[in-house]
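Work package 3, deliverable 3.1, input record:
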Amino acid sequence: MKHRLVLPAIGLLALAPGAPGRNLDMPEFPMPSFVRDNLGGMKEIGFLKFFRELQKGGVQGLDEVEFLDTGYAVLKSDSLPTLAAWLEAACSSVGLELPLARSGNYDGTVLARLLEVATTLAAVREHGKSLAMPIGLLICRRRQKWGDLPGDGKRDAYVLIETDKGLLVYDPPTRQLVALSSFSNTADIVTIQF
Amino acid sequence: MTLKTRIAPLWISSQRAAQAQTGARVPRIRNPGRPGQVLVLALALGIPAVEAGIPNQRIVPDTAALSGQPMTALPPPPPWASGSQTALWTVDNISAEFRKITATPPQIVHGALAFVRPDHRWLVAYVRWFQLLGKPLNLHYQDELFNCVNYSRCFVAFADLLAQDGGEGRGSICVGWATVFNRNSFAGVPAGGAHAIVIAGTSEGLFVVEPQTGAMVALRDYPNRDELTEMNL
């Protein structure tokens, strides 16, 4: 009789906030490959170069552009498939299947932040040079269709990455990737943040 | 323990320049560059016409690159717990909560329109858990690479992950990183300069967390509550 009372109580304790459960196992944080300078070191770009890239990408209203660091690395675009695989695996490890993410309450901000944090943690792990990761956030009004994404005017968020091929916009659920200069909603950008 | 807290203020607006002239501290780190200024800058840099970039394509995830890689095992986190059925806060709700406490509410940068408030007890447990990550993840302050912004973003990213892991399906959670002018010292971080912290809307209201130390106070008790510039959800 006692067991009938005790077992549910144990179950409640396990669900109470603060009670630890299982470990959180994630795929190892991904170290991207970086563009090198002429001397073999990591190429570094500052925010002025970023401004130039954004101008080249057709971004006109720069009032809502933020840079929180002074020096950024540049990623090789050929490391993007690895980063994409990591992001999908990390999401899968917490029960989120990325290709289906938009069928629920999707917030692309979370994924942009997660990817930036993951690569930063990889660089910290490998005692990387103190350069910020060039993985940022782009929030816009989706007024124009972009591939699978409709032009319905909804607010949406994407990953913006500085690479050897320039600034690229990446949408994790659809896996779409496009140069910022070819991005269809450049005129409706709300925020860019690195 | 001395904490480095600097984040780089990059552009000085007219407001900040005026403050600089009067000797006041510069509280904002948002880039307030103006199109006119940028145009001049662009001309000076000799920017070419807009280049045609790579066309729309799809990334094919390289799953093979992950195979054989070790897993990162983190300590058992606290199980996700949100508040009651009233847990969702819209951006307007969050702004209203700020206005109850400060006459200078921060700008809110957001991708979604509503956010799930965690149970307050969960946040307390999560703050403790986040402090345990220092060793396995080798978290330590490094200029540019891992500064106060990175600490705060890392805190928020893991909070989002745990909520997702806990089956939270109503949306992303009301935990964001914020920029502040550190007019008063808090949690061992000395006064002065721009800083980044975490702000969470919980079942018991808005709270501030210093992710580098685990210190946590209600926003109404945070000494720099009137110096917040931006909250990023």
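Residues 47 and 53 of chain B are 15 Å apart (CA to CA).
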